[in-house]
Amino acid sequence: MRKKYLQVAVSAALTVVLAVGTVGCGKKESASNQENSGGETITMKLALVDPENSNYAKGANAIADEVEKATDGKIKIEVNAGGSLGGERDTVELAMSNNLDIATCANSVLTNFIPEMGILDQAYLWTNAEQAHAAVDGELGDLIKEKAEAQGLHVIGFMESGFRNTFSTQPIESVEDFKGVTIRTMENKYHQAAFTAFGAMPVAMNYNDVFTALQQGTIDAAENATVNCLASGYYEVTKHITNTQHAFVYIVLCMSDSAWNKIPEDLQQPFLDAVQKGCEAQREYLVEANTEAETELKEKGVEFHDIDVEELQKAYKAEAEKQGFTFDEKWQEAVDKAIETTK
């Protein structure tokens, strides 16, 4: 009797294994032919270093909603916020090797792979957000996409963290107040040149070390979007924010080649249009978040200071000429066009 039961159990197990194997094969075949069949839902993972309660995650979820709606649920995006899939450069490299569907990163990270993108790292490149948008939504964006494809990436959209300001332990209200100030910046020669021009001492430092460095007096200041002063708790140790508006930062959405090739041809444009709508929504969320953050920061005792931005611009321009910064002619023309068309 025990032997009979064993035979039945083995037979049943083999049936299950074969059934699972058949289903698995069916899925594999369908996935490789999705562009033709259009039968299965395509689910893609998007990596984001910012927390789930940030305006960036809210924007990424808006992108996911727009994509699902525009493709009648045939394409879904799963947002993985909080750096759960790795840092920005790590996730870009994962996308390059087709091990992640969509990476997001600051434009300065992509400069490591696309040197021409250094043009976006300049201080005081744009005087307003409209110019910044016109550039990446126009010819400059096309140049970036073309170069990215050579790296195995499809740039599908541009979110942003916008203009950056200066957070400091002591008030900074004029260029003279920058003299002798040690400030944390990204490891970016253009940003560092700007603060050198102002008379400060820029120091490249890991983002996660900034709060402690400010608290211990290792540095006197940092710079970032206003909303990040609140989100990162800098307001506890820096009670002054100066509206330097010295740099504009984009958050670029980079899709792997294999993920792009899964999208049926008839859904590619609706997909891109939906991503653009989501990016535009995030830009609005950022404006709202910065406004709300300023109000909350003031309630927490943070003082905001205006400064002569034209004087800072002149100082940076002189330093840039001194260091001999030059950029690809075609890319410079695209930047100039964006500025000219938004005057």
What does this entry look like structurally?
The protein is of the alpha/beta class and 343 residues long. It has a single domain (42-341), classed as 3-Layer(aba) Sandwich (D-Maltodextrin-Binding Protein, domain 2), CATH 3.40.190. Helix content is 51%, strand content 17%. The chain has 14 helices and eleven strands. It has helices at 2-32, 34-37, 55-70, 88-96, 107-110, 129-136, 139-149, 189-198, 210-216, 226-231, 257-261, 265-299, 309-323, 329-341; strands spanning 42-47, 75-80, 102-106, 153-163, 165-168, 182-185, 201-204, 221-224, 240-242, 248-256, 303-305. The strands form three sheets. The chain has a six-stranded mixed β-sheet with strand order 7-6-8-5-9-11, sandwiched between helices. A three-stranded antiparallel β-sheet has the order 3-10-4. A two-stranded parallel sheet has the order 1-2. Strand 1, helix 3 (55-70) and strand 2 (75-80) form a beta-alpha-beta unit. The longest helix has 35 residues, at 265-299. It starts with a helix and ends with a helix. Residues 1-38 have low confidence and may be disordered. This is Tripartite ATP-independent transporter solute receptor, DctP family. It comes from Faecalicatena contorta. Pfam families: DctP (PF03480). Belongs to the bacterial solute-binding protein 7 family. It is found in: Cell envelope.
